[in-house]
Please model this.
Amino acid sequence: MELWYETSPMAIDTSGNGVFSEGRAKLSARTLRTDKWWIQPAITVFVLFSFIVYATFRAFENGKYFAEPLISPFYSPCLSTACVKGSPSFVGTIFGTYHIFGMTVSPSLFILIFPLAFRMTCYYYRKAYYRSFWMSPPACAVAEPHAKYTGETRAPLIIQNGHRYAFYAGLVFNVFLTIDAIGAFRNEKGQWGHMSVGTLVLLANATFLWLYSMSCHTCRHTVGGRLRNFSKHPIRYKLWTWVSILNHKHQNFAWISLFGVALADLYVRQVSGHSIRNLYFF
Amino acid sequence: MARTLKLRIWRGTDKDGGLQDVTVEANSGEVVLDIIHRVQATQMGDLAVRWNCKAGKCGSCSMEINGKPRLACMTQISAYPEDEVITITPLRAFPVIKDLVTDVSFNYKKALEVRAYEPPSDLAPGEARMQQVDVERSQEFRKCIECFLCQNTCHVIRDHEENKKSFAGPRFFIRLAELDMHPLDTLRNRKQSAQKEHGLGMCNITKCCTEVCPEHIRITDNAIIPMKERVVDVKYDPLRWLGSVIRKRDGIL
Model:
């Protein structure tokens, strides 16, 4: 019998582990997939990396985040005296103003850490970045490059088990962003009963963030998933049913809300910097 | 309408083997298993392949087609372009017995490690009564046909042979979830054992098990993540722990 021993650009030294373990089919390719399996992780890397670069720039820019009545989601709620007074969700001066090497610490840094924790520990984003950044695995049935794997059983990844606390913090921020959106029904002089493009932008941002939070797996567990007997808790069962419907779309809400928050910030930045005018409908 | 197919079929044993080229006629509507049978009947009389129902319900004909874990009986030839060479290999997470047949006994050993359903001691056979809403979550998991495609594609064991000792795999996580969600099961330490004995914490929820499941069971969303959250309830959440101490219950209502 004449056998054809495959050679492939994906072929690597057989390390004796994983798909190259003793007894398994002798093949030297890490994968025999012929589809473009690398596109999805590549896009994920590009989008997430772009967002990280933009968010970092904006967090340290420490300016152009408020244009009455709009405040950027990256700087809301204002917890520092460095914030512009008059922003809708101005909380006060809890953190005062900090300086490092003579530079004022951006109030955004106190804020972004919470949504960042929520997204970093999110069950969907974990899939996205484990696959695309850590290549563990890069795609299904594509051998990962790591020699050892312990998953989320030890530090630092065991911290992923704290996702529910990041979820609770995320809900608090959703409330502030909703207040901001409601506050955007004012004009530049602070008078109520007006609506602009900025109002729609902040409303859409708050809506998508609520949908992202409400579709979260932890939310699903909290409202009813942890129950053993749904029949004894009809209201929680109903809530669980609704959250389960949203949960099907959690991935979509994760991406839409990520774009939403960046675009909302960009819009406020442009208005604040007088690059564009915030058009009023009435 | 007939077409000529170019196949590359893995032949060999656990010691050695490789891909063998073969050309065969295929008819419209045929699936990969039909083609393998034709090759077996006309060109490779000793080609080993495991199969049974040819209807996607027995889970026997699991293999990898163009590198993707699939059931051969549910993979239409028409899904592949005319000029594409179709590569067929055995499952790459398990040892080969011969050709396309692998030794999946790892899964049977893991099945034995999951403690069976324990009904209340005062419940006689035939007396169990449950509401539909209480069991419908688990009914999704009962669709499993034990094709072990999820086990095969899970990188925890596919890419790390050493993890087979401590990791049960997605097929048994749905079993554990089914039992932990069972309204009458009295064994209360399934969450702890899922984490400690069956390696639930090794799963990094990359969802490949869900992607390959021919029964479309939402393994990750409906079984693994709920089990992870239940483990957090009893192991990692200090507030839940405090609540369970004060209210003297195990965290599950």
User: Anything to note?
Assistant: Chain A has a mean pLDDT of 89.
